[in-house]
Design goal:
binds 2'-deoxyadenosine-5'-diphosphate; globular; alpha+beta; 8 helices; binds magnesium ion
Length: about 170
């Protein structure tokens, strides 16, 4: 089970529904030295890093990851791009992290993505939009299973949790 609920021992505390999402800094983000910036933004927001690795992506993995787009005209160039240089694959956890990470990432086309979002602040082209984030809880579960084994994911609770959640 990738999405789970943490039941607090104290009855006074609210129950947290901790989701997980798959985030990938694409080859352009790694080449441009933006890995730290992406991690900083997700950390500062209050999400928890539970998996992290640098991956030279195979064609098979890229095709599987973007399977939903296989009929689109940009599919082969997208797969080629994802395999062209290493990516940083991550799993982040927190309440509402799937939708919130998408908000922090911004619209697919960086030219129209809002300032303050990662794509809005750092990109100019849809084919070089720096970062991937799962678009729904079910997609996130599928993508996490595709990119990470159970052993590669840490189960931990940051000591600052009471300062992030009521
Ligand atoms: P997102 O990454 O915001 O979820 P998506 O799932 O629609 O966007 O597309 C996946 C990736 O494919 C996207 O990040 C960049 C690329 N892509 C999408 N639309 C494109 C287009 N019209 N031309 C070139 N690349 C495109
Ligand atoms: Mg998508």
């Amino acid at each position: 089970m990738r999405v789970f609920h943490r039941h607090s021992q104290q009855a006074s505390k609210k129950e947290l529904a901790l989701e997980q999402t798959f985030i990938m800094v694409k080859p352009d983000g790694v080449q441009r030295g933006l890995v730290g910036e992406v991690i900083s933004r997700l950390e500062a927001k209050g999400f928890t890093l539970v998996g992290l690795k640098l991956v030279q992506v195979s064609k098979e993995l890229a095709e599987e990851h973007y399977d939903v787009h296989k009929e689109r005209p940009f599919f082969s160039s997208l797969v080629q791009f994802i395999c062209s240089s290493p990516v940083v694959a991550m799993v982040w956890q927190g309440e509402g992290v799937v939708a919130s990470a998408r908000t922090l990432i911004g619209a697919t086309n960086p030219l129209t993505a809002s300032p303050g979002t990662i794509r809005g602040d750092y990109g100019v082209s849809i084919g070089r939009n720096l970062i991937h984030g799962s678009d729904a809880i079910e997609t996130a579960q599928k993508e996490i299973g595709l990119w990470f084994s159970d052993k590669e994911l840490a189960s931990w609770e940051p000591t600052m949790t009471p300062w992030l959640y009521e």
